[in-house]
Write a structure and sequence with these properties.
alpha/beta; Rossmann fold; five-stranded parallel beta sheet; three-stranded antiparallel beta sheet; 9 helices; 8 strands; binds cytidine-5'-diphosphate
């Protein structure tokens, strides 16, 4: 670690590994910006679905990603959201978390041009420092110079159960089997893609969260930031 407390913090891991929850709390405690990069890939996927685009048309999707206006703003509603996600004038905060987006986001996020467009923005913001950035490739590609890199993981069953609970808590309908299967497929695509696959950076600290509560994980990561 080059700085105490670390200024650039990278949290990576597969779907529902707990990185967003921990990242959000950590950023709050440190007074840092919380940046959830998954939102950007989800937003591009949402736009493509909304416009009825052919998701296999890499060129068209890439062009759209380059010009997409995705606004992530402080939350205006106390419904569990960490921020508002606005596309055009529309609040799509929960829509970008729909099953439809879940099922298609890994196809879109595997496109090299899409990754380039989004990760350049992420890198510019991350380099300002005092940031907790959460994603799949933050420690490996977006911010390899991060002062602290944490890679979080848990069994697929545990992660699917957490995602199921989250959705039920929002008052929406959820099907455990479907969540489990979509998640496994998303992880498979994310970790086998050619560009910036999901994997721990060589210098990342690994945390298996299977047997840990959200609070225990948070305390562990916070301790890594203590002066
Ligand atoms: O919340 P959850 O962990 O389920 O997903 P997310 O972090 O919102 O990411 C959604 C999808 O975006 C992932 O499955 C990846 O396909 C993609 N993603 C990525 O490729 N690179 C990132 N840095 C973040 C997300």
């Amino acid at each position: 670690m080059t700085k105490t407390p670390p200024s650039i913090i990278a949290l990576d891991g597969p779907a529902a590994s707990g990185k967003s929850t921990v990242g959000r709390r950590l950023a709050n405690a440190l007074g840092y910006l919380f940046f959830d990069t998954g939102i950007m890939y989800r937003a591009v996927t949402w736009i493509a679905l909304n416009r009825d685009m052919n998701l296999r048309d890499e060129e068209a999707i890439t062009q759209m990603a380059q010009s997409a206006q995705i606004d992530v703003r402080p939350p205006t509603q106390a419904d569990g959201r960490a921020f508002d996600v606005i596309i055009g004038e529309k609040d799509v905060t929960w829509e970008v978390r729909s099953g439809d987006v879940d099922a298609n986001v890994s196809l879109v996020s595997a496109y090299a041009g899409v990754r380039k467009a989004l990760s350049e923005k992420q890198r510019r913001i991350g380099l300002r420092g005092r940031v907790v950035m959460v994603g799949r490739d933050i420690g490996t590609v977006v911010l390899p110079e991060a002062d602290l890199k944490v890679y979080m993981d848990a069994s697929a069953e545990e992660r699917a159960r957490r995602r199921y609970d989250e959705i039920i808590e929002r008052g929406e309908k959820a099907d455990y089997e479907e969540i489990f299967n979509t998640m496994i497929e998303r992880d498979r695509l994310d970790s086998t893609r050619a560009v910036a696959p999901l994997k721990p950076a060589d210098d990342a600290i690994f945390i298996n969260t299977d047997e840990l509560s959200e609070n225990q994980v948070y305390e562990r990561v916070l301790a890594m930031c203590a002066p």
